[in-house]
Amino acid sequence: MDGVDFVLIIESLIFFVLIAISALYFLVYFQHPEDKWVAWAPKIIVIIGLIIACCNILLLPLDVQNQRGEAVKKGSLPMGVLNLFFFILTSIFAIIVIPFMMFYYEAYDGNDNGTKQQYISATKWTLPMAVIVIGIITILWFLFGKISIKRKEIYSNVVDSSAFEYSNEYCEMTNNCLIETVIENDVKVSYFLYIVAIISFVGWFLFSIFGGIGLVTLPCDLISSFKNRPIPISKEKYQKLKDEIGLRAKALMDKSLEIEKLRNEAKDKSRFSREVKELKNKENEFQKSVLLLENDYNNMEESFTKRGGNILTQFAKLLLGIFGGILSFIWLLHIILYSFMKSINLEPISSFLSSILTLLSKVPFIGTALYASLAFWLLTSVINGSMKVGMKFEMFAIHPLIIRGTLMNSLLYNVGIILFSSVAIIQFMSTALGGYAKYTTTQKMFGIQIQKLKFLGYGYKYFLYLYLILILITFFICVFIPTKKAIKKSRETAPAETSLKSNPI
Description:
The chain has helices at residues 6-30, 40-67, 79-106, 115-144, 168-174, 191-227, 235-265, 274-304, 311-343, 353-360, 366-392, 408-432, 441-449, 456-502; strands at residues 146-155, 179-188. The protein is mainly alpha-helical. The protein has a two-stranded antiparallel sheet. The chain is globular, with a radius of gyration of 28 Å. The N and C termini lie far apart (78 Å).
């Protein structure tokens, strides 16, 4: 081991400070005004959870810098201990702390003296759930917590040198040359490593579905936000839109009364009864309608009172959407050229991103900054995909991130997804960027141990296929469906305008 690498330590501290500031800004930027001076415990958990998730992702470039591309350990940081510490901390937060804080926050009944009751209610729901989850993980570890290691035993018989003739024919006839025997052994992994594997598996499930969708929809949404940005409108147009929104609000008020009636009917029913499931679907549908109405109302107010809002912000979204689209294309290209080819046991066409990052990693901050851009774009796409799926399917609850309008339970929900996904993303990065991550502790943990676990190992391979398929399907939908809608809308414009004139609002 070499001496202390002060450049590496300074770089790590700088990135940690940036992460902490970003986590605090994230909370302030998205929190709802109702939570401004309350719910301090959930806020602290949100900040700590975000810091842990970001540190998870940045462990790989730290490991690369520490290892310096050499098989023999050269670095001064104990990366094995750091990796396991952060991943176990992620597991504790994802399984216990985040659910506890969500139950704690939702148990608030408006009573200033209800904190004790909130803790009791949260413990009542979290403790059995945590015991069941940990129990299931323990059983799975006991039954399947093994990796299969294949090794070759090579030996030969002693032969008289005077009678030895080295040729393939001689070896085959006498059977006196090297003999290879393949032996397969099952090795038990540690309990803590298996917990990390389970968290990674769940994270891969979320990452492959939400991330596959979000990798396409995120840049599309940013560009669409600029395209459909609020523009200044006249007072007459403002009044007309206001009347339309008023009618929609009235319809939602009527629907809320129906939901309240269903809630009273399902009050004494089982959580798994048909009535309760119907109620949940109605509530989710209602929440989505309210969200869309609030968005339209805010756009209307911004168009009239703020004359379209800040144009610099709108152009920033456009530029970020273009830059993000380039990042998404780069990732898709790299997955096809490298990850997909390796998954089907073929020689990768190109190492692409891995070569670029390996070259830039020799420059302090630059290589890490590029890696962070690629990794955090993947993480952001997961959140975007989660909201897209929530808006599309009624069975899923939606927890959107709304600027200065996100309640703390939605923030906690999204932090939970971020924590799970962060472990999956670092596993994906350590395998997808094989040349960049070679000889690192992270690659050994995920590529050699976790990825070879019985049963779980198959999932990681097929999750990659699911991820790639969803990227391509979502791209097809985003490109061709809006075009068909635009053509259909243009054909219906004339009749619609006639109907509007004959039936004024």
